[in-house]
Structure formats: structure tokens, C-alpha cells
């Protein structure tokens, strides 16, 4: 849409313009169809309504604070992806540096306690040394690239008979 407006303005040249000339020329650009955005995010049984700002897992409503809502929205938009603390600080908290605090762990702990109720399969998981992942598939956590790399770094046990 901004490209259309820019082309339209270039066509008008450098001459002084009145609002009577500009508005009719800009109306088609402004009224162009806009891509619909998702109003409800779903990951497994977890549902986040972006309009009503409500969350629920199955039939259980989840009460979220504003930052928890933003964090969950960010994670649901990137489900099944490992999210680093640096990415979360930059994209959810809008900071340009990574502070030396446990801010992410505290918020993640609170969010996890609200999302993962008793007798429910955990959806938010730690990926040791890398970050966090939100997934509806329990088996996915075992196949994440970060976990495979961590398993390769673990020292192998030597057989004491071969010494």
C-alpha cells in the first residue's frame, strides 16, 4: 500500500497541491484490500483470542497479565521453534540489550504454571543452553535440533573393562 501512495505522490510532481487534488488521488490507495490477520491463535488445545485478549486451554480459562499475554502470543506465533532469551528480550520487552537478570525465567515460570495445569502434558519446555519452545507435540521436544546438539556434547561413558 505504501508503494502505491509513493507512486501516486511521484506522479503529482513538486508543484504545490491543495487537499482537493490530493484526497481523490489517494482514496484508491487507502481503500485497497488489506490482508486479514489472524484473530485467534491455536496451538493444540491452547487458544489465544487476540481481540478479546483471552486465553484458554481446552475448556479451562487462563487469566494472563499483559506481559504474559504478549509473551504467549509471541511464542504461539512461533510454535515449535526454539526461542532464545535474547530474541524474547528484543521482541517482547523491546530492549536492545540482554540484561543480566532472570526476568525471562521468572515470566516463563509464571506462564508455564498457568498454561500447564495438573494432569496436562507440558506445552512450554526449556531447551537447555538455548531457550524455550512452545509445542503441542510432546515427541517434538526430543527431535529439536538444539537437543540433538546437546546430546552430542555429552561425554560418553567408557567401559571400565577396556582400560
Total beta strand runs:
6
Helix percentage range:
40-55%
- In N-to-C order, the SSE pattern is HHEEEEHHHEEHH
Q: Identify the overall geometry.
A: globular
Mean pLDDT metric? 77
Measured between the Cα atoms of the first and last residue, the distance is 71 Å
| Alpha carbon gyration radius | 24 Å
Q: What is the name of the CATH topology of the largest domain?
A: Arc Repressor Mutant, subunit A
The largest sheet, given as strand count, sense and whether it forms a barrel, is: 4 strands, antiparallel
CATH class categorisation of the largest domain = Mainly Alpha
Q: Give, in spatial order, the strands making up the sheet with the most strands.
A: 1-2-3-4
Q: What key attributes describe this structure?
A:
single chain; two-stranded antiparallel sheet; 163 residues; 14% strand; globular; Arc Repressor Mutant, subunit A; 2 domains; four-stranded antiparallel β-sheet; alpha+beta
Amino acid at each position: 500500500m505504501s508503494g502505491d501512495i509513493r507512486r501516486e505522490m511521484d506522479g503529482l510532481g513538486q508543484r504545490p497541491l491543495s487537499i482537493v487534488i490530493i484526497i481523490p488521488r489517494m482514496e484508491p490507495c487507502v481503500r485497497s484490500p488489506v490482508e486479514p490477520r489472524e484473530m485467534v491463535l491455536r496451538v493444540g488445545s491452547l487458544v489465544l483470542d487476540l481481540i478479546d485478549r483471552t486465553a484458554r486451554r481446552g475448556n479451562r480459562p487462563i487469566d494472563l497479565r499483559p506481559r504474559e499475554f504478549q509473551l504467549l502470543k509471541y511464542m504461539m506465533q512461533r510454535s515449535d521453534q526454539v526461542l532464545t532469551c535474547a530474541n524474547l528480550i528484543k521482541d517482547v520487552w523491546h530492549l536492545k540489550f540482554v540484561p543480566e537478570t532472570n526476568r525471562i525465567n521468572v515470566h516463563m515460570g509464571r506462564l508455564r504454571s498457568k498454561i500447564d495445569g495438573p494432569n496436562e502434558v507440558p506445552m512450554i519446555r526449556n531447551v537447555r543452553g538455548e531457550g524455550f519452545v512452545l509445542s503441542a507435540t510432546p515427541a517434538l521436544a526430543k527431535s529439536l535440533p538444539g537437543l540433538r546438539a546437546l546430546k552430542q556434547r555429552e561425554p560418553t561413558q567408557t567401559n571400565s573393562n577396556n582400560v
